[in-house]
Structure formats: structure tokens, C-alpha cells
UniProtKB/TrEMBL annotation:
The gene is Usp16_1. GO terms for biological process: protein deubiquitination. Transmembrane segments: none annotated. The keyword Hydrolase applies. It comes from the Eukaryota. It holds the Pfam family UCH. One of its GO terms (cellular component) is cytosol. This is UBP16 hydrolase. The lineage of its organism: Eukaryota, Metazoa, Chordata, Craniata, Vertebrata. Residues 1-216 form the USP domain. It comes from Syrrhaptes paradoxus.
């Protein structure tokens, strides 16, 4: 879908990205890098249908005679619809010559994450005037081992029902009340048939591979 936006607001976000604490090795730093503004120039220029039409004229419809016009452009990937459930998948491998190597570096992630700096200013299911899009952590998948072998375990939070999330999923209603605290509950570590209660600090120190958040606001 191609839409025309005002160049002054096309790359605006719900919250100021410059206010973020972009500590390297944090989930905020990862999201900032993933959604950064990119310039498309030289061999990465964008094929412009309008420029091509203007250059060839309206009567030139023979494909073989068309001269396609490419132009410099800016690209940015932002969230236009905040999901009820936010799943973040961390890339845990890197190229090492002809081989793939697992990345074991710890990535810091919070109990409550604000997605507003990564959402468009016109995010469809955010109430007007809201400058926060908050999510609470409720699940983590961790992988131990190497690229060739290993073991998956999970952390899951047993908590009370999130009424705001139910309204969003079942009735499409955007959350209105401000809740900045994580959903209360007890964390458990699950490894095959073994289930053990653990502390929040244990969860936040894990080598996360998948992160699961539920919408608060």
C-alpha cells in the first residue's frame, strides 16, 4: 500500500526518540537500530513511478521503451498498529566466515517497555493524546548450547487477568487508563517437566531469545 504523507510528519513518532536511554546491549538500543531512518542512495535508490511517468509521458505504454527513473529516498520502519501481544525475536547468530556462530551476549530488557518511540505519530489504535504505548513482560524463551545443539527453556509469569488486554483483543478498544507498573504475579522457570518458582531478577538476567509482552496502555 502506497500512501502520500507530509514530508515533515512522515517520520514522526508518538514519543521523542532522542529522550531514550540507548545503552548498547539493551532492547531499546536494538529497537532503535531496527527502526532508524535510512537514506537510499546510489545503488539503493528507489524506483519512482511518478518520476518514470513524468519522464516517459502518458502516451508511452510500451514496457520495452520505458526508461525507469530512480530517485534518492528515505526509509524508516515504524509500527502503525500497536499489537495486543508484542513478541520480540532476538537474532542470536552471526556470520563467522562460512559458518554461523551463536551470540551469547546478554541483552538487557525491562519488565515494562514503552513502544511509543517506535510507533508512527498516527498509530491507529492509540488513544488521541497518549504518548505512551506500554507493555508488561509475561514470558521469556531462553536457549542454552550452541548452533548445533542445545536446550530451550522458558520463563512464564502466573498473573491475574489483564482486562485492558481482553478489551483490546475481543472488542478492539484502545486502553484508556494509565498503568505504568508491570502486571503482578509469580514467575516460574520451565525446563521440560521441571517447573520452579524464580525471582524477577533471575528472569531479567536470562539470555533471552524470545520476549513476550502484553499491552497495558
Amino acid at each position: 500500500e502506497v500512501s502520500t504523507e507530509d514530508p515533515e510528519t512522515a517520520f514522526c513518532t508518538l514519543a521523542n526518540r532522542e529522550d531514550l536511554n540507548l545503552e548498547e546491549g539493551s532492547i531499546y538500543h536494538c529497537l532503535y537500530q531496527f527502526t532508524r531512518n535510512e537514506k537510499l542512495t546510489e545503488t539503493n535508490k528507489l524506483l519512482c513511478d511518478v518520476c518514470t511517468q513524468r519522464h516517459n509521458g502518458p502516451k508511452n505504454n510500451i514496457k520495452s521503451e520505458k526508461k525507469y527513473v530512480y530517485t534518492n529516498a528515505k526509509k524508516q520502519m515504524l509500527i502503525s498498529l500497536a499489537p495486543p501481544i508484542l513478541t520480540l525475536h532476538l537474532k542470536r547468530f552471526q556470520q563467522a566466515g562460512f559458518n554461523l556462530r551463536k551470540v551469547n551476549r546478554h541483552i538487557k530488557f525491562p519488565e515494562v517497555i514503552d513502544l511509543a518511540p517506535f510507533c508512527t505519530a498516527k498509530c491507529k489504535n492509540v488513544a488521541e493524546g497518549n504518548t505512551k504505548v506500554l507493555y508488561s513482560l509475561y514470558g521469556v524463551v531462553e536457549h542454552s548450547g550452541t548452533m548445533r545443539s542445545g536446550h530451550y527453556t522458558a520463563y512464564a509469569k502466573m498473573r491475574s487477568m489483564n482486562n485492558h488486554l481482553s478489551d483490546l483483543v475481543l472488542r478492539g478498544q484502545s486502553p484508556q487508563a494509565l498503568e505504568s507498573e508491570p502486571v503482578k504475579g509469580q514467575w516460574f522457570h520451565i525446563s521440560d517437566t521441571r517447573v520452579q518458582a524464580v525471582s524477577t531478577s533471575k528472569v531479567l538476567s536470562s539470555q533471552a531469545y524470545l520476549l513476550f509482552y502484553e499491552r497495558l496502555l
